[in-house]
Amino acid sequence: MANIMIRRGDKGEYVFYLPKRDLEDTIVSMEFDTPEKWGGEIKLNNGGAYLIEPQAAPERLPYSVRAKRLDAAE
Amino acid sequence: MSNLTREETEALIAEVLEVYPEKAKKDREKHLAVNDQSVEQSKKCITSNRKSLPGVMTIRGCAYAGSKGVVWGPIKDMIHISHGPVGCGQYSRAGRRNYYVGTTGINTFGTMNFTSDFQEKDIVFGGDKKLAKLIEEIEGLFPLNKGISVQSECPIGLIGDDIEAVSKKAAAAFNKPVVPVRCEGFRGVSQSLGHHIANDAIRDWVFERDGKDAQAFEPSPYDVTIIGDYNIGGDAWSSRILLEEMGLRVIAQWSGDGTLAEMENTPKAKLNLLHCYRSMNYISRHMEEKYGIPWIEYNFFGPTKINESLRRIAAFFDDSIKAKCEEVIAKYQPMVDAVVAKYKPRLTGKRVMLYVGGLRPRHVIGSYEDLGMEVVGTGYEFGHNDDYDRTIKEMGNSTLLYDDVTGFEFEEFVKKVKPDLVGSGIKEKYIFQKMGIPFRQMHSWDYSGPYHGYDGFAIFARDMDMTLNNPCWHKLTPPWLKPAEEAEPMAKAA
Ligand code: SF4
Fold this sequence. Notes:
The complex is a heterodimer.
Chain A: E1 2-8, E2 14-18, E3 23-33, E4 38-44, E5 49-55, E6 63-71
Chain B: H1 6-17, H2 22-29, E1 32-34, H3 63-72, E2 78-83, H4 87-90, E3 114-115, H5 120-125, H6 128-141, E4 147-152, H7 154-159, H8 163-174, E5 178-181, H9 191-207, E6 223-229, H10 235-245, E7 249-255, H11 260-265, E8 271-274, H12 277-291, E9 295-297, H13 303-314, H14 319-347, E10 351-354, H15 360-363, H16 365-370, E11 374-378, H17 385-394, E12 400-402, H18 407-417, E13 421-424, H19 426-434, E14 439-441, H20 453-468, H21 484-493
Parallel strand pairs in B: 2-3, 2-4, 4-5, 6-7, 6-8, 8-9, 10-11, 10-13, 11-12, 13-14
Antiparallel strand pairs in B: 1-12
Bound molecules: iron/sulfur cluster.
Iron/sulfur cluster (SF4) binds next to loops of chain B.
């Protein structure tokens, strides 16, 4: 489990940030993206994948959340 | 010399790598690349933020340098103790030229060196008592300091001193912030982790401190902050005036010419303007999440980028700011035109190789291009993937990228690429000057500056011209080594 931060990029896309490793990347897909259910498996541009426990969408971004690494890039 | 093609650049890298033993070669290979603008992600072509190889000459610094030298050091009304042996602080003292206003030793302390000067007995028996005594002495001698930070050097982490406990006690006793920073030099691979640790210390010990909101503050809708500008040679000042002319109110400078009060007020800003992304993105991200303050990166090197940045900043505010932004750009245009008209003809077509810290390898490219020059190679001491992502687009195709370049590689590249100018640090300066290649220090602006803003651009252009077109570069071959024809007219004259 790692602490990650999700924010909106310039073009409205989700951006992933892993403070521990200073890793910033765009999120290419998020499994659930509705107000009630948000998160699930997220895929990064660099090929990595993380799992956020599906939950209600955060009221405001950026938002820090715990995530599980499914598939590390690099 | 004309520019290299992709194949030639690749061959050059291969040639330089040839001298390394197999294992080192494999490692260094990943840090050298030929730029390809079609690559979206830098990590496909270049690896960064990795440990330097033992045995090669790296140009990097340590985490202590990142925290004390870069982030905390310039905060002028606090005293930053270099906690540990005397050398780390003394040899880096005042080296970065972060300008500030104030009376040094009375209410500002920027160029002074405070150290606990560890001796053998402190290493053996621990230095906590000494630290407590030192803070007491500081309070007696410099009562106008607004706070103290304890910047750990290597031994502190090794002997396991509890600087947090000492700091807390001292903070309570003197009723001012005393910030322990765990930035021991051995942490991380370069100064970059020091920036991160320093940012986290600000988050935990400045933003979270009780009573920090005691000071009066009247918010305005146009409050912005300058983050990640260290006022090298006055950089932050020449940036600040542009923002102020635009109608914005700059409530804090981080950290060049900055104060503790400014830092404490930053969470009340409307927008954080981030210049040095590498060293201060951490705190900007934190403020975005915790206080809902958006941040944007901007670039005040060279008129093209300045205009672009000013408009981007103005877009966050109402029409009056946008209108004033255009006025500011129009006001400086004649000055910029004059600078370009004067220097561009003298500099056009010249080729530059850069190797700087974590921001300038990509940020200054615009300034050179505005003068008709071309950057043919660039690299970071301590950049990360995201820095290279941003660099690829700025650099031309088949130019050289080198991460954490070693002394040997850099020299070889310069010998082969033959740039007209090299921009790097003091450690590289004399090597290249002796090779007969014009050189500018791009960390300290070679004791000149500022280079930010329109005013800075004028100084930048003058400096580059002064260096590149200096007559001394033709005088490097002594007369008796010159070919006969050239010496002939001299003999006749005599
Ligand atoms: S690596 Fe350690 S000993 Fe060396 S300058 Fe940095 S803090 Fe000091």
